[in-house]
């Protein structure tokens, strides 16, 4: 479920690393929230970090991305205890590690689903990556699996040779779009679970698609 910006003030910078991966960012956020009485016996930073992880970990913040970790806590203010419930209220400035790839970035993923509309990919901690059929190399065709409803394999025909997406190899794709769909008011029971962040990718250029396509091509050239 995406978190509202009404309570958040944040900014994002690329995550610092010796091997910088641009799809991860540090987002600085200020947030005011309650710490329940049951946690007030803990060191305050430990109690607050635990509450931050409950609030943000594996959640999507619109325009910032998916939170994968609480990086650090920069400041803690407040600690006011309301007599009515015994909870303490703090205003905390902290940084989160966010997953948010940029448009044009190339990422490696594995096939999670293959159907007539295209591919659904996964990078382990995030599964809402879609490669629609119109962003495949051309000409590509879908071969239905007679034993699996609505499933099958895609293949690209190049130089009269079929190049199959068999779901075994990693697939390299270029990020075409990152979107944050609005939360539906009502959702049919048979509908797929709501995805608060969706990545659309393309494999329609040299070097993209299953890595074996290009390994095989290099081996063919050398022979």
Protein model, in words:
The protein folds into two domains: 5-99, RNA polymerase Rpb7-like, N-terminal domain (Dna Ligase, domain 1, 2-Layer Sandwich); 106-222, OB fold (Dihydrolipoamide Acetyltransferase, E2P), CATH 2.40.50. Mean pLDDT is 85; it is low at 1-9. The protein is elongated, with a radius of gyration of 22 Å. It is mostly beta strands and 223 residues long. Strand 4 (65-81) and strand 5 form a beta hairpin. The strands form three sheets. The chain has a five-stranded antiparallel β-sheet with strand order 1-2-5-4-3. A five-stranded mixed β-barrel has the order 6-7-8-13-12. A three-stranded antiparallel β-sheet has the order 9-10-11, with no helix packed on it. The protein has helices spanning 44-56, 211-222, and strands at 9-14, 24-35, 60-61, 65-81, 88-99, 106-115, 118-122, 129-132, 140-144, 152-158, 161-165, 171-179, 198-202, 209-210.
The number of helical segments is 2
Low-confidence stretches: 1-9
Radius of gyration: 22 Å
Give the full name of the CATH homologous superfamily of the largest domain.
Answer: Nucleic acid-binding proteins
Number of domains: 2
Distance between the termini: 52 Å
Structural class: mainly beta
What would you say about this model in short?
The protein is mainly beta and 223 residues long. It has helices at 44-56, 211-222; strands at 9-14, 24-35, 60-61, 65-81, 88-99, 106-115, 118-122, 129-132, 140-144, 152-158, 161-165, 171-179, 198-202, 209-210.
């Amino acid at each position: 479920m995406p978190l509202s910006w009404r309570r958040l003030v944040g900014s994002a910078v690329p995550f610092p690393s010796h091997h910088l991966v641009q799809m991860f960012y540090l987002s600085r956020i200020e947030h005011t929230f309650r710490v329940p009485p049951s946690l007030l016996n803990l060191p305050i930073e430990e109690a607050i970090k635990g509450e931050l992880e409950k609030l943000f970990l594996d959640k999507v913040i619109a325009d910032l991305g998916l939170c994968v970790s609480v990086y650090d806590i920069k400041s803690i203010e407040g600690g006011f205890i309301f007599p009515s419930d015994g909870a303490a209220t703090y205003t905390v400035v902290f940084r989160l590690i966010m997953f948010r790839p940029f448009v044009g970035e190339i990422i490696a993923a594995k096939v999670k689903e293959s159907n007539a509309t295209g591919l659904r990919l996964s990078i382990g901690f995030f599964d809402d990556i879609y490669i629609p059929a119109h962003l495949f190399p051309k000409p590509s065709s879908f071969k239905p699996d007679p034993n699996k409803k609505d499933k099958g394999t895609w293949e690209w025909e190049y130089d009269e040779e079929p190049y199959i997406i068999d779901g075994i190899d990693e697939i390299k794709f270029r990020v075409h779009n990152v979107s944050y769909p609005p939360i539906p008011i009502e959702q049919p029971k048979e509908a797929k679970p709501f995805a608060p962040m969706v990545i659309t990718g393309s494999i329609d250029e040299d070097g993209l698609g299953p890595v074996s396509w290009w390994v095989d091509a290099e081996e063919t050239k050398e022979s």
